[in-house]
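Now for a concrete sample entry.
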Amino acid sequence: MIAHIMQSARFEDIWKYLKPADIVGNWDLIKRMLWPKESGELWAWALQVWGHNVQYP
């Protein structure tokens, strides 16, 4: 469900439903569900900029 929200909602609406900690805490599963590949790369980059230690792929 988290990956679906990340892909379907407008960026500003994502934060009405999710916190960065929700994404980071489930990142290993989420990163496999994001499509297209560039979407996962972009999210990984954003989370890293925001100070979270995530890897992609």
Notes: The chain has a mean pLDDT of 97. The helical segments are 2-8, 11-17, 20-25, 27-33, 37-49.
